[in-house]
């Protein structure tokens, strides 16, 4: 293994409920064959800009203020350029402010579908002498999730089963994303009132896949050519209409890199649910209950198999009962 990087599932790829996106049913994908997922992966997503997470006051001589907030910027805004220079990263934004030398600067900001031009004068921070506009920012979002399936012919994959959300349950806008092989090194058990999480290490710096789509039903993209699927299980899909209350299996990785099958029970099937809650599931596997307490963060996307067919993926955990959660029907994920 080359340079190892530590990743926490945390809240970055949080288990959350969001709107869906365009899908195709298994019938539409007639003839397609799939590799069964269940392996965890580290995701590194870029918004191709700098997102405002919060505001803070700056002390500059006899002045105190927050230029960004005073100028009308809002949390969630994406700063993409300063004085005509593209600011894709936190470092680029800092350099642009330094080059401005405290003069009035023009900021290009994306807010939803709008593009705004906002002018303001940065303040020189007494603490470090740098010009700032009073914002807490990020340019990437990283975390752990689970691959649900890989289409054999195209190499396209689906993962997570829900939108990529931050700690405030705000959907993350995707510019580009790399997917890395991840080895699980520990688990924080889920308890009533507190979600557990998987803890992992990226195996190396070379991505195994690239994502190109993020929407309400997950993260999608294509595996790198030459990825070794020799140990992967081939599986057919089945629509929600074929799912029944009773025994099923979920595939997850809670140690190392190899997914394993764990027994669950489907307690409810809701084919008409417009969100990502087509199944209510309950973990019944003694090993999984002992090791994780049930469903934990990082398991989002774990494939659900019943009667030998892939019917969906785990998406939610019940905070008041980590042995129970929701799942999404596989037809809502296919075709992205």
Describe the structure.
- By secondary structure, the protein is mainly beta.
- The protein folds into two domains: 5-47 and 140-332, Thrombin, subunit H (Beta Barrel); 57-133, Roll (Pdz3 Domain).
- The chain has helices spanning 67-70, 90-100, 286-292, and strands at residues 5-8, 34-36, 40-55, 58-60, 63-65, 78-82, 85-86, 105-111, 114-120, 123-124, 131-132, 135-151, 156-159, 176-188, 197-202, 209-215, 218-223, 234-237, 246-252, 260-269, 279-283, 303-306, 309-318, 321-329.
- It has a 20-stranded mixed beta sheet that branches. A two-stranded antiparallel ribbon has the order 4-5. It has a two-stranded antiparallel sheet with strand order 10-11.
- Strand 23 and strand 24 form a beta hairpin.
- It is elongated and about 70 Å long.
- Residues 1-30 and 166-171 have low confidence and may be disordered.
Q: In percent, how helical is the residue content?
A: under 10%
Supply the number of helical segments.
3
Instruction: Please state the structural category.
Output: mainly beta
The SSE string, one letter per element, is EEEEEHEEHEEEEEEEEEEEEEEHEEE
| Portion in strands | over 45%
Mean pLDDT: 85
Keywords:
336 residues, 3 helices, Pdz3 Domain, Thrombin, subunit H, 20-stranded mixed beta sheet, two-stranded antiparallel sheet, mainly beta, single chain, 2 domains, elongated, 46% strand, 7% helix
What's the helix and strand layout?
Blueprint: E1 5-8, E2 34-36, E3 40-55, E4 58-60, E5 63-65, H1 67-70, E6 78-82, E7 85-86, H2 90-100, E8 105-111, E9 114-120, E10 123-124, E11 131-132, E12 135-151, E13 156-159, E14 176-188, E15 197-202, E16 209-215, E17 218-223, E18 234-237, E19 246-252, E20 260-269, E21 279-283, H3 286-292, E22 303-306, E23 309-318, E24 321-329
């Amino acid at each position: 293994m080359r340079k190892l990087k530590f990743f926490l599932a945390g809240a970055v790829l949080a288990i959350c409920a969001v709107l869906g996106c365009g899908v195709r049913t298994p019938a539409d994908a007639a003839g397609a064959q799939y590799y069964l997922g269940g392996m965890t992966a580290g995701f590194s997503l870029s918004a191709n800009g700098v997102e405002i997470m919060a505001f803070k006051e700056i002390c500059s001589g006899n002045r105190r203020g927050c230029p960004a907030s005073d100028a009308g910027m809002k949390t969630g805004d994406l700063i993409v350029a300063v004085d005509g220079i593209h600011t894709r990263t936190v470092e680029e934004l800092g350099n642009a402010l330094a080059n401005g030398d405290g003069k009035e600067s023009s900021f290009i900001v994306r807010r939803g579908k709008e593009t705004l031009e906002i002018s303001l004068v940065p303040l020189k921070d007494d603490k470090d002498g740098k010009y700032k506009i009073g914002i807490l920012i990020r340019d990437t979002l990283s975390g752990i999730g689970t691959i649900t399936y890989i289409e054999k012919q195209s190499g396209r994959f689906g993962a997570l089963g829900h939108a990529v959300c931050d700690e405030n349950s705000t959907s993350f806008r995707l510019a580009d994303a790399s997917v890395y092989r991840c080895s699980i090194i520990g688990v924080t058990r889920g308890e009533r009132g507190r979600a557990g999480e998987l803890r992992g290490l990226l195996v190396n710096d070379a991505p195994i896949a690239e994502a190109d789509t993020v929407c309400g039903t997950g993260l999608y993209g294509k595996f790198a050519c030459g990825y070794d699927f020799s140990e992967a299980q081939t599986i057919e899909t089945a629509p929600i209409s074929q799912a029944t209350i009773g025994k099923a299996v979920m595939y997850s990785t809670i140690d190392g890199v190899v997914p394993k099958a764990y027994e669950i029970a489907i307690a409810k099937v809701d084919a008409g649910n417009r969100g990502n809650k087509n199944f209510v599931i309950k973990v019944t596997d003694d090993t999984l209950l002992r090791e994780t307490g049930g469903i934990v963060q990082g398991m989002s996307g774990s494939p659900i198999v019943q009667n030998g067919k892939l019917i969906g993926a785990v998406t939610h955990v019940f905070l008041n009962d980590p042995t129970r959660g929701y799942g999404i029907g596989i037809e809502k994920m296919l075709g992205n």
